[in-house]
């Protein structure tokens, strides 16, 4: 098994145990460090954490984040902000932003032709 495979398994375990880690890589990393290395990130210094990362005694943040994306892609373990209830909120927000951009373009003298193709 590759190193990323074993990291993926560790990350998947955390995502299953702590649903709040599915939406926040920082929360995921804290849980990862605590669960698998017994590190309390509130008590060690940044210098000590970076030393552990550079010596390979703990995975770096981007590796854990990458493993989370892989797990979520393969197993659909998504967080609350990704689920359908919030998707409607995201769609509404995207439409509001799009409408604001169109209004600003029209206000600045740019017509509908320049915004064509950017419909919501």
Report on the architecture of this protein.
The protein is mainly α and 120 residues long. The chain has two domains: 1-79, no CATH class; 83-120. 67% of the residues lie in helices and 0% in strands. The chain has six helices and no strands. The chain has helices at residues 3-17, 25-37, 46-54, 61-75, 84-107, 112-115. The longest helix is centred in the C-terminal third of the chain and has 24 residues, at 84-107. It is elongated and about 60 Å long.
Topology (SSEs and partners):
Elements lengths: L2 H15 L7 H13 L8 H9 L6 H15 L8 H24 L4 H4 L5
Helix pairs in contact: 1-2, 1-4, 2-4
What's the quick description here?
The protein has 120 residues and is an all-alpha fold.
- Structural class, from secondary structure content? mainly alpha
- What would the average pLDDT be, to the nearest integer? 77
Write down the secondary-structure element order. Answer: HHHHHH
Distance between the termini: 45 Å
- Rg computed from alpha carbons, rounded to a whole number of angstroms: 21 Å
For the sheet with most strands, the description reads: none
Gross geometry: elongated
Unreliable stretches covering 5 or more consecutive residues: none
Percent of residues in helices: 55-70%
Number of domains: 2
DSSP strand count: 0
Strand content: under 5%
Query: Total helix count?
Result: 6
């Amino acid at each position: 098994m590759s190193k990323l495979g074993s990291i993926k398994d560790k990350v998947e375990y955390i995502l299953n145990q702590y649903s709040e880690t599915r939406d926040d890589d920082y929360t995921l990393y804290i849980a990862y460090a605590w669960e698998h290395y017994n590190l309390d990130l509130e008590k060690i210094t940044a210098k000590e954490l970076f030393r552990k990362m550079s010596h390979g005694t703990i995975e770096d943040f981007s590796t854990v984040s990458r493993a989370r994306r892989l797990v979520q892609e393969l197993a659909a373990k998504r967080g609350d902000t990704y689920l359908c209830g919030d998707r409607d909120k995201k769609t509404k927000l995207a439409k509001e932003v799009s409408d604001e951009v169109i209004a600003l373009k029209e206000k600045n003298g740019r017509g509908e032709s320049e915004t064509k193709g950017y419909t919501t």
